[in-house]
Amino acid sequence: MNRSPLLRLPVFCASLWLAAAAQAAAPAAPAMAMDGVLVDGGHMSLYTFDQDAVGSGKSSCNGPCATNWPPLLAPAGASAQGEWSLVMRDDGTVQWAYQGRPLYRWAKDQKPGDRTGDGVKGVWHLAKP
Fold first, then answer.
1. Quick count: other Cβ atoms within 10 Å of Cβ 100?
2. 86 contacts 97 by C-beta, under 8 angstroms
3. pLDDT tens digits, residue range 73-90?
4. Mind listing the pLDDT tens digit for each residue in 60-76?
5. Regarding beta strands 84-88 and 94-98, do their DSSP bridges make them parallel or antiparallel, or are they unpaired?
6. Phi–psi pair at 23, nearest 5 degrees
7. Secondary-structure percent of the chain, ordered helix, strand, coil, rounded to 5
8. Which stretches of the chain drop beneath a pLDDT of 70?
9. CB distance 86 to 96 below 8 Å
10. DSSP letter (8 states) at residue 111
């Protein structure tokens, strides 16, 4: 029996929806470990700031500080998962935190693998998994 292609369309659409739902249910982590440190999707090193109170849900690096230490921003609709949490910033943006510590990049790191921000002023440190 030869069925019309239109009868197959609902099954095809349902399959696409299920595949998309499965991917949405398991979001990728906002950063990954590489050579013992956390890096962003572009493999740039991530840092923590001693002035941030762990687990406070706030960042102490705003304004000019955030120009030098850009926060690892979360996309709209992001949600906390496992050791990853979200921090509401003073400017209304949302930043990723790992184990309660907000994460930042260092503006002077030029290429993946650079770690020039580690130890700056004794308060900036590479983020480690």
1. 15
2. yes
3. 999 999 999 999 999 999
4. 999 999 999 999 999 99
5. antiparallel
6. -70, -40
7. 20, 20, 55
8. 1-27
9. yes
10. S
